[in-house]
Amino acid sequence: MKFIERLSQLSLSRSFFLFGARNTGKSTLLKHNFGAKHCLWIDLLDPDLEDRYSREPISFKQEVLALDETVQYVIIDEVQKLPKLLDIVHQLIESTNKIFIMTGSSARKLKYGGANLLAGRAFVYNLYPFTSVELDKDFQLDVALHWGTLPAIIYKMQTDAEKSSFLQAYAQTYLKEEIWLEQFIRKIDPFRKFLEVSAQCNGQILNLSNIARDVGVDDKTIKQYFSILEDTLMGFMLEPYHGSFRKRVYAKPKFFFFDTGVCRALSRMLSVPIKKSTSYYGDLFEHFIILECVRLASYYYPEYRFSYLKTKDDVEIDLIVERPGEKLLCIKIKSSENVREDKLLSFANLVKDIENSEAVCISQEPRAKKIGEVMVMPWQEALRKYFTQ
């Protein structure tokens, strides 16, 4: 598998955390950036190694102190497996000249277990599935919509059957290793059902009561399940816009899975064909664009904040981007190659009610055009203009 330059610019001189869902390429990136250098690599997915450090964490400190001066980096892969090591890392950052690099595919144990997050002594980076910017000429929209952009999907799996099997196995591995073995829940079957139902609700305004009824648990448990998805980096909440606004709007969030392919696998939709001009295609395109905006902003503009707005009259702004020092960016996402004025009228009128804002429609139009106050742009051009420059 060839190496693709990632947008995450990792420090060479400071300790850091690198968070990302499984199979997003964390280890590959670190091996490329630091593999030629002198490193001590500790893989906590190795059960023997995890067991040894769990029983005798002091042995980790002893091994680091025994390293000679040529070993500059200490890499701890999947550090959430043993959060107690972070206390020792803290001591070693203060007492040695080693640089510590810690990866994680879950923040739950670190977040709720009182883990030492090193109080600013380590930077924090995130890594996502490939963006279209990273893939450049290797990017194919149909592949991204159908299978997602995890590195193995793009460069390892050759046939549709292989891609389907990989994504189904990914879902099962997540259930087993991230959820069950880490004892985040007491019963696996309701959570398995929840994964399917939540994936089917991807990008929709959440109704916890309806989801609870479908899964067979209470609202409080569903809220906990969504918290687990967020903490294990499987997705994120898109909150409703909280700025001053006169109209009656929905006040509940949406949830988006971190990858279109994984979402389709969890919702059991991998065998369903994707056809243009259908509502399903439009939903997938919207999911893809929102993921691209969030990923690119994380790399280039981490201070950006995202939300959505939908009125009780069903007029919606798919994405509102708060950009420090700039106008509020109001985005409508259309999968059409020919966006008509009548399809943007309600959106344009809604944006007029928001002070200091600009309206953009991200679409599959071949060239940019202006419809009233709305700038309609090809999606590639819009991403470059608003999220990479």
Overview of the molecule:
The protein is α/β, with parallel strands linked by helices. 41% of the residues lie in helices and 17% in strands. The chain has 16 helices and 13 strands. The strands form 3 sheets. The chain has a 6-stranded mixed sheet, with helices on both faces. The chain has a 5-stranded parallel sheet with strand order 2-3-4-1-5, covered by helices on one side. A two-stranded antiparallel sheet has the order 6-7. Strand 10 (328-333), helix 15 (345-352) and strand 11 form a beta-alpha-beta unit. The protein starts with 15 loop residues before the first strand and ends with a helix.
**Cα shape:** globular
Proportion of β residues? 15-25%
Global mean pLDDT? 92
Radius of gyration: 22 Å
Count the E strands: 13
Helix amount: 40-55%
Pairing-aware structural class of the strands and helices? alpha/beta
Largest sheet: 6 strands, mixed
Helix-strand sequence: EHEHHEHEHEHHHHHHHEEHHEEEHEEEH
Query: pLDDT below 50 for ≥5 consecutive residues: which ranges?
Result: none
Output the CATH class name of the largest domain. Answer: Mainly Alpha
Overall number of domains = 3
User: Multimeric state of these chains?
Assistant: single chain
Discrete helix count? 16
CATH topology of the largest domain: Arc Repressor Mutant, subunit A
Distance between the termini: 29 Å
Second rung of CATH, namely the architecture of the largest domain: Orthogonal Bundle
Q: Tell me the strand order in the biggest sheet.
A: 8-9-10-11-13-12
Write the layout of secondary structure elements.
Blueprint: E1 16-19, H1 26-34, E2 39-43, H2 47-55, H3 58-65, E3 73-77, H4 85-95, E4 99-104, H5 108-112, E5 123-126, H6 132-135, H7 141-147, H8 151-155, H9 160-180, H10 188-200, H11 208-215, H12 219-231, E6 235-238, E7 254-257, H13 260-266, H14 279-300, E8 305-310, E9 316-322, E10 328-333, H15 345-352, E11 357-363, E12 369-371, E13 374-378, H16 379-387
Parallel strand pairs: 1-4, 1-5, 2-3, 3-4, 10-11, 11-13
Antiparallel strand pairs: 6-7, 8-9, 9-10, 12-13
